[in-house]
Amino acid sequence: MANRAVLETNLGAYPVRRGKVRDIYDLGQALLVVASDRISAFDWVLPSGIPDKGRVLTQLSLFWFHSLHVPNHLLTDDLADMNLPFDVTGQGLEGRCMLVRKARVAPIECVVRGYLAGSGWKEYRKSGTVCGIPLPAGLVENSKLPEPIFTPSTKEEQGHDINITFAEMANRVGQSTANELKRRSLEVYQLGADYAAQRGIIIADTKFEWGWFDDELILIDEVLTPDSSRFWPADAYQPGRSQPSFDKQFVRDWLESTGWDKNSTPPPLPDDVVQQTRAKYIEAYENLTGGAFHWR
Prior knowledge:
Number of strands: 15
Distance between the termini: 15 Å
Helix content: 25-40%
Largest sheet: 6 strands, antiparallel
Strand content: 15-25%
Radius of gyration: 19 Å
CATH superfamily of the largest domain: ATP-grasp fold, B domain
Number of helices: 7
CATH architecture of the largest domain: 2-Layer Sandwich
CATH class of the largest domain: Alpha Beta
CATH topology of the largest domain: D-amino Acid Aminotransferase, Chain A, domain 1
Number of domains: 2
C-alpha cells in the first residue's frame, strides 16, 4: 500500500489487527478497515503484492453493500466524511478503506456452495458428503449442486479454517443463531448469484462473515469478492474439469510450477503473473458492476 510508513506513523496510537489482506484499526467508536495489495496463497502472504487489489476488493464490497440491501457494517467510504483523527493527505487510502461499525463477530465462517469445488469436492470423493450433507451420487468436479448448501467452518487464526457440520456449529453458537446464520447466508448468496448470472459470472461458492450490532445481525468484512468467492466465466463453464476463474489462480498455478515446498518463504512473483492477476480482479469488478475501474 502506498506510503505505508506514513500511515503507520499516524495510526501508531491505535490498536490494529492485521490480517492476510486487511489492516483493521480500532478508532474507539468505529473501525477503519484498510484493504492492502497483499495477496496470500497456500496460507502464506506472498512477498509480491498485486497493484490496486485492495481497491478492487473494497469497491466491489461497496457495490454489494449498496445493491443487496442487506443490513451491514458500512458507515462511509468517503474520506472526507470519516472525520479521522489524523491527516490522510497523500497516504494512498482513497478507494481502499471503509469506516465501519464495531460488531460482535459471529465465530463461524458462513460458507455457501452452489457447485462442488475445493474442499467440498475432496470430501465428496471420499464420503459422498460435504460437511456431513449427503449429496447425489455421480457428481463430478465442479458439478452444479441441486441447490446451494450451507457448509460452515471454524475461524482459525493460523492455517486453514476447518469444515464442520451444521450440528457442530449449533453446539458452538446455539441452535437459533445457527439457523439464522444459515438462512441469511443462503439468501444473500442467492441474491448475489442470480445477479452475477445476468452478468455472465458464476459464483460457485462464497464465504460470509456476520456480526451483531445493537442486537441486529449484520453483514461484515468483505462480501462476494474474488478473495472470498470462486468466480467463473459462465460461457466457459464445463463440469468435470478445472474452471477458468477471476481470482488468484494465476498465482497458485505459478507457485505450483516452481517446486516451492509451501513450508518456507514463498518466491516473489514475476511481473507477468502480477499483471495477469491484477487484470483478472479488475475484469471481475467491471463485469459485475458494469462500470470502469477508474484507478487504472
